From TrEMBL:
InterPro entries: Indolamine_dOase, Trp/Indoleamine_2_3_dOase-like. Keywords: Dioxygenase, Heme, Immunity, Iron, Metal-binding, Oxidoreductase, Tryptophan catabolism. Belongs to the indoleamine 2,3-dioxygenase family. Signal peptide: none annotated. It catalyses: L-tryptophan + O2 = N-formyl-L-kynurenine. This is Indoleamine 2,3-dioxygenase 2. It comes from Microtus ochrogaster. It holds the Pfam family IDO. Catalyzes the first and rate limiting step of the catabolism of tryptophan along the kynurenine pathway. Involved in immune regulation. PROSITE patterns: IDO_1 (PS00876). Its EC number is 1.13.11.-. The keyword Oxidoreductase applies.
Length: 412
């Protein structure tokens, strides 16, 4: 093959790969983005023992009965979980029971061993899905929503979770506001795929439209995130909800990790659930060519191992797509440069807004909790760390700075 044919061929291969991004092959939909479309609410009949516990989870945890129920659970075979949606619900259910089991008594003396009747099927369904055996964003948010009235609007009042934790309405809203943020991102994900196609075809008008749509979508995500303040009480989030998202990696309350009985003899360590495991912002970063500092990249890339493998593959394929930033820099299309900068700015604003949310729900709430219970030793072990295990504010600020630094100078 001569060089030009090779270039054409590689161009065709990239085009093929990137076009496939839009075909649902990655469990991404134009309408729902990364949210699972129509998540199931029930498992096949033989899994009733799991569903009975999951449906009572807040009560069983609050009344300190969950562990006793888990010890009585029969060992069930995962073979009858046939469809992807069944497996996703099973992962959500087993993950939620696991978090409740571990944190039922708070951070004091968490168990060292997850019993085999829970650990074996959880590891098995995790293996099938390519997810780690712990609660992840794709469980708590992407798989954990249903519309009360299917024809009704995408509003908190018309949504409910499938599995819940203690924390009442604040818990529900914490999950559902995040669902709404993911939903608001869906047109942005669609625009991003159109943008990559426009780049491949050197179609400036389509690229411009895609960038404008992406900016709108990012701004809608910020508006959706703002609802956190309307529905989620910071003190309930900090003192009741947050612990159920905590993992057993870099967590001083469980320094050794957790033994999954019947799965591995050595304890395993996994990070807790965090929206840092959402693929949305990482997809936007890839498309816009935003490069984070080494520590930030290491953490964000590690979070990809907590995403469904098809979503992780989407991010990797986006990474090898043609560079939007190079095109904007070299094409001399001033309108595209402006639209690009507006996307970067909208993303930096979303990240600033998110930092304010974190300051209110973690930093301020932690200091209030401390002043109420100055002698309480353990619950604050994680106070300045995210559930994913980061030193929160410095990490988030660095991610925002790197986003802002990506802005292009129109006169360069
Ligand atoms: C009460 C609400 C929220 C709190 C307290 C919160 C807290 C945090 C924390 C502590 C981190 C640092 C990583 C870690 O250790 O977990 C983080 C990262 C992150 N969060 Fe949130 N979060 C909230 C809502 C959301 C929502 C609704 C989204 C949207 C999907 C989101 C998206 C992200 C992303 C993408 C990161 C990674 C950093 C970045 O790319 O900017 N968060 N969050």
């Amino acid at each position: 093959m001569d060089t030009s044919r090779e270039i054409m061929e590689s161009h065709r291969q990239t085009l093929k790969r990137v076009t496939l991004l839009s075909l649902g092959r990655y469990h991404i939909s134009e309408e729902y983005g990364f949210l699972l479309q129509n998540p199931l609410k029930e498992l096949p009949e033989q899994y009733r023992p799991w569903m009975e516990i999951a449906s009572e989870l807040p009560h069983l945890i609050e009344s300190h009965q969950l562990r006793a129920h888990v010890y009585k659970m029969p060992l069930l075979d995962c073979r009858f979980l046939k469809s992807h949606r069944e497996q996703r619900l099973a992962h959500l259910v087993l993950a939620a029971i696991t978090m409740g089991f571990v944190w039922q008594e708070g951070e004091t003396q968490p168990p060292k061993v997850l019993p085999r009747t829970l650990a074996i099927p959880f590891a098995e369904v995790s293996r099938k899905l390519g997810l780690p055996p712990i609660l992840v964003h794709s469980d708590l948010v992407l798989t954990n929503w249903t519309k009360r009235n299917p024809e009704g609007p995408w509003e908190i009042s018309n949504l409910e979770t499938i599995v819940s934790f203690p924390g009442g309405e604040s818990l529900q809203a914490f999950v559902l506001v995040t669902v709404l943020v993911e939903k608001a991102a869906a047109p942005g994900i669609k625009a991003l795929v159109q943008g990559v196609e426009a780049l491949l075809q050197h179609n400036r008008d389509t690229l411009l439209q895609a960038l404008q749509q992406l900016r709108l979508s990012i701004q809608d995500m910020t508006k959706a995130l703002a609802q956190m303040h309307d529905y989620v009480d910071p003190d309930i989030f900090y003192t009741v909800i947050r612990i159920f998202l905590s993992g057993w990696k870099d967590n001083p309350a469980m320094p050794e990790g957790l033994v999954y009985e019947g799965v591995a003899t050595e304890p395993l360590r996994y990070s807790g659930g965090s929206a840092a495991q959402s693929s949305v912002l990482q997809a936007f970063d890839e498309f816009l060519g935003i490069q984070h500092c080494k520590g930030g990249v290491d953490f964000l890339h590690r979070m990809r191992d907590y995403m469904p493998p098809s979503h992780k593959a989407f991010l990797e394929d986006l990474h090898s797509a043609p560079s939007l930033r190079d095109y904007v820099l070299t094409s001399g299309a001033g309108c595209c440069l402006m639209a690009y900068n507006q996307c970067v700015e909208a993303l930096a604003q979303l990240r600033s807004y998110h930092i304010n949310v974190v300051a209110r729900y973690i930093i301020s709430a932690a200091s209030r909790a401390r002043s109420k219970m100055p002698s309480h030793p353990l619950p604050h072990a994680l106070e300045d760390r995210g559930t994913g295990g980061t030193a929160v504010l410095s990490f988030l600020k660095s991610v925002r700075e790197k986003t802002m630094e990506t802005t292009l100078n129109p006169n360069a």
